Amino acid sequence: MMKLTSAPTFRTQPRLAGERRRHPRTALARPAAVRHPHRNQTLQAKTVDLSPGGCRLILDAAPLIEPGQILKIAIATLPGSGIVRPQDFVEARVIRRVRRGIRQQIAVSYITVRPLAAAS
């Protein structure tokens, strides 16, 4: 298990005209972990929003993550716990990346999805 820091924050977001998303998204700030594809490294992240099809994450550190890369991500499922387990990781494809200083924000689309009952 890996302990992450940050408390969850919930806020709903309306779907904007012209969006290409298949699923409605919900603003949710929750600790997450990202495994980089070419390094034996797990990076701490924080969700910005999520949906059944993907999520948006903020990472504070390098290495740069590029659109098209396949990552493994896990989001803390228990409010306030910040704990992700090895079995919580799912594959996701990076759709876009925006770099802001040392931070980068990525949007991912899930490749593998497990039913929520399987996560417990």
Task: List the helices and strands in order.
Answer: EEEEEEEEEEH
Shape: globular
Number of strands: 10
Global mean pLDDT: 78
Helix fraction by DSSP (H/I, runs of at least 4): under 10%
Q: What's the main sheet like?
A: 6 strands, antiparallel, barrel
Uncertain residue segments: 1-17, 116-120
Description:
The chain contains 1 helix and 10 strands; from the N terminus they run ββββββββββα. It is mostly beta strands and about 120 residues long. It has a 6-stranded antiparallel β-barrel with strand order 4-5-6-10-9-7. Strands 1-8 form a two-stranded antiparallel sheet. It is globular and about 30 Å long.
Layout of helices and strands, plus pairs?
Elements (H helix, E strand, L loop, with lengths): L1 E2 L5 E4 L13 E4 L1 E5 L6 E10 L2 E6 L10 E6 L7 E2 L5 E11 L2 E8 L5 H4 L1
Antiparallel strand pairs: 1-8, 2-3, 3-5, 4-5, 4-7, 5-6, 6-10, 7-9, 9-10
